[in-house]
Amino acid sequence: MKKGAVLSFLLMISLLMTACSANQPVHNSESDDIAQTIPIESETQRETESLPEKTGIIAEQILNGDGGEIHYSYYLPEGYDQSKTYPLVVTMPGYDMMWFGKDSSGSNLNWKGFRVWTELSEDMIVVSAQLTDWHETSARQAIELTEYFIDNFSVDRTRVYAAGYSAGGETMSQAVSMRPDLYAAYLHGASQWDGAFEPIAQNDVAVYIFMAESDEYYGSEKARFAYDGLQAAYREKGYSDEQISERLVVEIPDNEYFNSRGIYNYHGGGTILFDDENILNWITSKRLIVK
Q1: Secondary structure of the chain as H, E, C letters
Q2: What does pTM read for this prediction?
Q3: pLDDT higher than 80, residue 63
Q4: Residue-range domains of the chain with CATH
């Protein structure tokens, strides 16, 4: 074979080998490492999502509700377990602990009406909001917050309770009468009743009313009015006095009750009701009949 022909033949072989090499898959160690870490990262993410909730008092949260921002704090008991269910207490403070901007944030955290439920022997979920009024807006926000906790936490649906003090009582009396299907019992402290009576009786919501005889702000007649209205609604339903007494209580202590405890401001001093475990246990003993 001539020398020129040999060189041409070798050149052709070289070109063919180069073409074949170009068509082979290229090993990219960095790409392979990334591909291998993707499922590991996904698994880690799933494990993180299943970690237990933070427990204790979780302060100064915001729920973006239908009617605007709802400022609230809540409590999850130590050892909170999503495989169990817990009673839920929704408790609203008076005017001085409502939402007035950032400077007021968290002012309800040391309020007795929030703390006492966290200190009971039974584990409970407790939530308290700082609302902006005591009318229909606040009532609807209280309902929305209740539904949020029912939907997102391990709540015993038959044991959802409400409590309201002063302005918070005006709010919660409306919320409970607007959605009596949500609450098993309601503690109405030192306040006036702004809700309806009939829905309470129709849904068997238990109500405990507490008011000082000499309450400087509302006066004890507000408590008697609420009791009479609820009692009439229960009687209209056909309940006997004995049956009513199991679902409706009014307590109107005289001045001596407070004075003997060193209390001379009767409206503010009405928060003493939260020191009475008999009242708290009466509330938490009730169960909602889920229809």
Answers
A1: CCHHHHHHHHHHHHHHHHHHHHCCCCCCHHHHHHHHHHHHHHHHHHHHHCCCCCCEEEEEEEEEECCEEEEEEEEECCCCCCCCCEEEEEEECCHHHCCCCHHHCCCCCCCHHHHHHHCCCCCCEEEEEECCCCCHHHHHHHHHHHHHHHHHCCEEEEEEEEEEECHHHHHHHHHHHHCCCCCCEEEEECCCCCCCCHHHHHCCCEEEEECCCCCCCCCCHHHHHHHHHHHHHHHHHCCCHHHHHCCEEEECCCHHHHHCCCCCCCCHHHHHHHHCHHHHHHHHCCCCCCC
A2: 0.81
A3: yes
A4: 3-48 (no CATH), 53-284 (3.40.50.1820)
